[in-house]
Amino acid sequence: xxxxxxxxxxxxxxxxxxxxxxxxxxxxxxxxxxxxxxxxxxxxxxxxxxxxxxxxxxxxxxxxxxxxxxxxxxxxxxxxxxxxxxxxxxxxxxxxxxxxxxxxxxxxxxxxxxxxxxxxxxxxxxxxxxxxxxxxxxxxxxxxxxxxxxxxxxxxxxxxxxxxxxxxxxxxxxxxxxxxxxxxxxxxxxxxxxxxxxxxxxxxxxxxxxxxxxxxxxxxxxxxxxxxxxxxxxxxxxxxxxxxxxxxxxxxxxxxxxxxxxxxxxxxxxxxxxxxxxxxxxxxxxxxxxxxxxxxxxxxxxxxxxxxxxxxxxxxxxxxxxxxxxxxxxxxxxxxxxxxxxxxxxxxxxxxxxxxxxxxxxxxxxxxxxxxxxxxxxxxxxxxxxxxxxxxxxxxxxxxxxxxxxxxxxxxxxxxxxxxxxxxxxxxxxxxxxxxxxxxxxxxxxxxxxxxxxxxxxxxxxxxxxxxxxxxxxxxxxxxxxxxxxxxxxxx
Length: 492
Description:
The protein is α/β, with parallel strands linked by helices. The protein has 18 helices and 12 strands. Helix content is 58%, strand content 12%. The strands form 3 sheets. The chain has a 6-stranded mixed beta sheet, with helices on both faces. Helix 4 (63-71) packs antiparallel against helix 7 (121-173), helix 5 (73-110) packs parallel to helix 8 (179-220) and helix 12 (349-358) crosses helix 14. The protein starts with a helix and ends in a 5-residue tail after the last strand.
């Protein structure tokens, strides 16, 4: 359930928190809660009820002696409350640092090449060591609280037992209590003391579990802002027209000082059309692509499909009609066949191979030792960048969605890989409403329309030839990409 809540969370929330925190919650917090609410709750309840029953019987046997016993209860409660508070604070700190440690380890594994080339092994070892030390300090504080709570409670209990035995012995000598009654009462007192020790020990387990539960339920209680309307309409199959109608968007609310990323953007993509977005980095091009599948919702205006606001459509239907190919496509550590069919799990092997052939991937896949059953490796690292890109295109072919989003799909490839990928993309774009971001002139010039985005606004639009003749921002970018007729990357 926790993982389900995480994977369904808004992209904005996932981007704003360290991934290590989520990992720590799933692996560690959940385990503490499970331990507390299985063994902890059962045993805590059992020993607490036993303690209450024994004290009740003791009061029935001799209320004066029991009153002496109960005089120590406030002191024991104070000790447990005091150390429990310290333990909760230390446990919370340890959980936070566990998340930070997970993040640091993941960063080092992902960035190991950069670390090695910059000779930063010692620096990273020291940085992770600081996180480990901070976590260890919190763990030690929690252990100290646990270690002191038990002995202090036992000390109070021993003082109470000594007082009871002294008073009971005096009663026995005065003939007010028989030796048998004295022995029976002391037996009850020992039983109560044993139950009290168990309750005290379990209190630490419960404290850790409740602290973890607060973190977990705090995450579970956060409802995603991007959700389906109760009366959401289905999206029919078939060709679609996508439009942005005077769209504005800001990642942070204006009340908190958030500047708009997009301002009054309007564009239309019809079936079979290819629209290119170009412009300086940070202008808002990728944000436009993120609005179409509702990774974020617009601040003003509307994104529509066939004239209907996408916020009125079923979220599953909307996203099932969109295929996305990015600059660095993600592959799971699964078979190549499973990665290609990820957007359509029921796809047949014939469909998978046909999609791979269309994406110029079939030949290199069949040349692998296990063909389509070859595992891609973590994040697809067993494959080259061009191979990963072609598998991502094959995945889009299998999904067969009417809307295609291309986010710099060829910008990181070498010339040979780019030629293969570009040819595959041209086949993929046929008949679809395609919106692409590109930094290469060779990719952009054949688009039906080009929108130049700068500082969140559409500053120019038109065909390649018309924009070059205009002599504006696009013409300057196009000139930067031309060197003896060969395309080079635009500095974005």
